[in-house]
Amino acid sequence: MSNRALSNPALKDHKTVELNEEWNNFMKRIGEVSNLVKDMASGDKERAEAAKIVADKFLEGKMILEDDIKMVVKEDRTVINENAFKTMGNKDTGEVDKDAWMAEVSKDAEKRALDRKIRLEKADTLKTQAVKAFRREDYDRALSCYNKAIEQVKDNALLYCDRALTKIKLGNYQKVFSDCEWALRINENSFKARLYRAKAHKELENSDEYEECRRELEEKFPQHDELIKYFLDAKDGYDDA
Known about the structure:
InterPro entries: TPR-like_helical_dom_sf, TPR_rpt, TTC12. By secondary structure, the protein is mainly alpha-helical. The chain has helices at 23-28, 30-40, 45-59, 83-86, 98-106, 109-135, 139-152, 157-170, 176-186, 191-203, 207-220, 225-233; strands at 4-6, 17-19, 71-73. The protein is 61% helix and 4% strand. The chain starts with a strand and ends in an 8-residue tail after the last helix.
């Protein structure tokens, strides 16, 4: 079945939503999108953040919730607007107003894109400060800057990895795992997240977990064999992987 494009004035000339299935098929899956909204409004910080990341990537066309549904929003960034679900039902006909739903989802896209740009710039400045502090071995200052950077941008795997390394330098090994897990949620192929997780297990003398992590590293990233040996076997003196 060929793709059907739905033009929407709210998206302006260059903003088009492409659906590769009939609307009825899309509606069968709308519950999954609704669940994302519920998660974001759940009050559970980690659950809300995870749902927000998934929602952003979904609307940017980077994620498909099901094989038979694909939505691509030609936009820098947007997130699901909860008001969209409040206006979906048409009480008179029992049908869903597609244009109204898409308008609700995308009407604030430009503002959100601008907000995103500002937050990215702030995060970049804070990361630069963190790197400088790290290089002069002021790890407490580096950690503070990374914390603030992640407050601005929560979907950057490298920031979580950099903060994990800083925690390793501070000896906060137990706190390394959460950063590595977040990095892997965002980028499942993150080499640094796996490397730092293995290092934390080694320092905590979690032998079984360490051996498993190291074996996974060597299997997945044979091209980094020397770096893995250097970083995991070094007693001290490593700066950055």
